[in-house]
Amino acid sequence: MSGPGKRLRAALERVDRERQYSPAEAVRVLKELPQAKFDETVEVAFRLGIDPRKADQMIRGTVSLPHGTGRSVRVAAFATGDKAREAQEAGADVVGGDDLVNEVIKGNIDFDAAVATPDMMALVGRAGRVLGPRGLMPNPKAGTVTIDIGKAVRDIKAGKLEYRVDRQGNLHLIIGKRSFDEQRLLENYLAVVDEVVRAKPSTAKGRYLKTVTMSSTMGPGIHIDPNRVRENPAEAAAAS
User: Fold this and answer.
1) Alpha carbons 194 and 72: distance in angstroms, whole number
2) Which of the residues in the chain have pLDDT under 50?
3) 173-210 pLDDT, tens per residue?
4) If we measure between CA atoms, which residue out of 116, 114, 98 comes closest to residue 106?
5) Cα-only R_g, the chain
6) What SS3 state is found at 54?
7) Which of 21, 28, 51 is nearest to 211 (CA)?
């Protein structure tokens, strides 16, 4: 066995699938796994004790990672006039009104996130069937429909993520890149966990965090103890 197969076998041998790790231990194990030939993305997956079919248990929102995602995010801004210039100055990669909407409807999507001014939403709604399934539809609750479009663009560029639980109560969020050092990964992870815990619906019953799993693009899942999800990074460093 060679190449990816050998790397996967080595990774599986390094991770104890029956064990629940602390956050610091999970990050340390992930960093010790055999590396791929590219800078892998690191994610945390949650299985939540909620029923997303109920409107009052649908979890969605945004979270800002203190150290960013480690990847370049292309942002589209649906805006015209002064607001279009504001978006461009903030770093938006694609800016437009009717022209941009028409390109999206044709399936020409060259961006990873989208923002819009409120006056543009009637127009943007025409592209909802294309943007919605891709998770790109601007939304006031996520802060992506706003008059302060420059700030929205800068926040996304700096590492602000939008999240939404799926129909099975699962939630996946990026916390950085494999090349990040342990401290940065841990602090990004804690920002995500704090946000997910904060978003717990008051109507949710029983255990909220059922499972928490950290993984890199090519690596196996590393299970984190749901009772130890908010470990302090400073305390973890002192104990190591």
Assistant:
1) 24
2) 1-2, 236-240
3) 999 999 999 999 999 999 999 999 999 999 988 999 99
4) 98
5) 20
6) coil
7) 21
